[in-house]
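Forwarding these from the shared drive since the link keeps breaking.
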Amino acid sequence: MPAKGGSLRLRLIAMAALWCAVALIAAWAVLSALFADQVRRGFDGNLAAQLEGVIAASEWRDEGGPSLRRPLPDPRFQQPLSGWYWQISGPDGPVLRSRSLWDGTLPATESSPAGGGISYDDVAGPNGAGLRLAARSLTLTGVEGAFLFQLAGDSAAVAADIARFDRLLAVALAILGLGLIAAMVLQVQIGLRPLARIGRALGDIRAGRADRLQGAFPSEIQPLADEIDTLLGHQAAVISRARAHAGDLAHALKTPLAVLTNEADQNKGALARHVRHQVVEMRRQVDRHLSRARTAAAAGVLGARCDITPVLEGLVRVLNRLHQERGVTINLDVADHLAFAGEEEDLQEMLGNLLENACQWAKSSIMVTATAQENGVLFAIDDDGPGLPPAQREEVLNRGARLDESKPGSGLGLAIVADMAALYQGELSLRDAAMGGLSARLTLPLAP
């Protein structure tokens, strides 16, 4: 499931792609405008040159009529409706025009260009096509009135050249944009690789495969890695001190309790019995709360991990020897490669209490299974003893009541296991076993 903050990689790529798209679109607009302006200037220059050619080739007869001394070299002026036209107009209208105009005329410009210069305008041609018109007004010596020289060219070619350039430019910039985005994706991938290494290293620490971040990181990331290592070291030190304090407290409390027990055993009477009863209750409570305190310090520790099979095999070897005279045997069925996401001492205490309880009540056989489930690893410890009535199971788990004073121990084993399992986000439940006795089902977190 993605994090609520979104992906940093996607955020960087999206932002870079957005700015790249904006820059490329702006570049397209600027380059397209520059090219269009250059093409139009070149076309206007060509019109001006052609118009000067018409002016240079014109001559005036004695009767005042204009004519061309030589035909213009461009054959389009001879082809009817070719899109290229020239025309000479006097005060009364056109007096000479190119053959390409056929029976049409070029429109007169609304205003004469100042200073005898050339003016340009966009007009409609004889066949409705768009034309670019260059015009120049001249007053000739010996000729009455001003004459207007006009030359027009088809602007469709200019528009086609601009459109073709725009298409090619768009394709080229699109290819460039894709290349830039690919380069940005690669850059982001390479740039974020140290963070991915830290993520994998933290996964190894959480799974118990490592206790510190491994390897060197870039200077921008190294302070983060150092802080994480420092935090891990501090956490380990705090847990070690908590365990040491719990052990010291247990030792400090058990010694006075042992003294009280010895004093009470040497005396008879109601007071001595009352003292012995209270000392037993104090021992039970000390054992329970010290186990909870020690487990609370270790539960959820980053990187805590222990293999399950060696722990169970070690406990079974010890208990089989202890209960050999009673003929009780413990059988194991453990799935391969199971690991508990917690401290080995806590797993030993929980499984040891459950196995010890089963050995005390079993007639001859105990079956221990461990399997991986969706919510963790499930331990099932079944015995063939007398079992436990459903009405008493909740009381045993919550309060640790002793149901039989003749059995050794404090009677808190199941309650301690339930408390410790809860601190690991696990659960202990009791039910009827298929063997006829009690089945203790313990669920604990499974390490990767």
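-- next protein --
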Amino acid sequence: MPKRYFIISIIFLYLAISNTFAQVNIVPNPSFEVLTGCPEPNLDNQIFLATPWFSASTGTPDIFNACELSNFFGVPYNRFSGLYYQQSRTGEGYAGILVYNHNTNGSTRENLEVPLVQSLRINKQYYIRFFVSTSNSSVDDAPCYCDGIGAAFTNNKYLNNTGGSPVLTDLRPAIDNSGKMLSDTVNWIPVSGCFFNTGAEKNYMIIGNFRDNAHTLASPECDLSFPNTSYLYIEDVGVWEFDPLPDTVLLCKGEHKMFNGSFLDASYKWSDGTTDSTFIISSEGTYSVFADMGDCILSDTVVVIMMEEQPNLPTDTLICQGDKMTLYAPVPGDYEWSTGSKLSQIEIIEAGMYTLTITNECGTFTYESSVETTVCDCPMYVPNVFSPNGDGLNDELMVFAACDFPLKIKHFQVFDRWGSLVYASANDNIESIRWDGLSQGKPVSSGVYTWNMEYTIVLKGQTVQKNSQGDITILR
């Protein structure tokens, strides 16, 4: 599978703090070891014994375990009275599914499904991995191999009962083994990748081939003779969330912290070139670590805030009367505003002195902001009638302003009654607005037109956005 890059933001804590959350597998019974009973010989569809796994369709997934002594669903000998052989990767058991059947044009398939221990969270990144081994024996005249295996997630329990053993082409796999032939009948081969969960939370995982025969890579032997099918053993299924730590780390005065970026069996590279899983930081800044999983790379960013270098709130702020302004806490902690609010931000419309007290691991800090209000309106005059008839009187539409602040016109536009644009100023200077009643070189008809004007004024270095609109009547 080609390497893909995924970027998310995380914060690492002390090395002394365990990073085990990032190592928690949220797939229950991942190696199919916990059984409610031993598989019975000559009975299909016993995946339910490996609770809480079940079939996602009318297909018949199998469970294999060393406790089954007839060698039909045993380990290591199994299938067709022990003609097939595979040691378990861990423990004494594994599952098995049919992923390709040349003779049925894809209509005979099997899929495994399991509810996750915890939902995939929205906008979080996950690493997915399971192991497969192809089931074929030395008695097969023409072993059939294919590339068809992957994993998908669904919000709710999925079950396709449309008849037969359908291909679940309505599901989009989170990872897919497309293009890599699975022909190893001895070793356990990993199928893995990274998945960023967008949209809704996901509660169920499904393993199978989500492509029809036309889009599944199969060996030429699959169309020659029995068995014409590809059957895979499945082992050690895992899904791990890659968001182990909080989003914010504070450095108190004179403090150093060691960050731990370890994740499964990844190799690492930090933004300064070091390759350890840990990193010592003593100054404010943004630091990145890249965790190479072999088939995808996880990129994490460490954001460090030094308390003694934090800016104050805006100390001298001017806002327009009737407008709103938001004051934001500059650092994390427990908040106490002079307004009584305990939120990280407050919205204000009145002049006054606003005080914020923040208590965090580095101590207690007080910030102040003085807010003044002023009348910001720039009186704008746009005539409501003009007569572009060439008599030298009131032939052009002009705009006038009496403004004590720097003024810049973003645009002045005139529209006809159908909403079509008939005039637009081409300059940010108000004196440049001079409309002669022409549109694309032709006189417009008499009637009522609407205008809209967006402009900005500058108050003590702050840019304030303004908007005005009205109508104009043309007489000819």
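Residues 20-241 form a domain with the Jelly Rolls fold (CATH 2.60.120.260). Confidence is low (pLDDT under 50) at residues 1-21.

- D.
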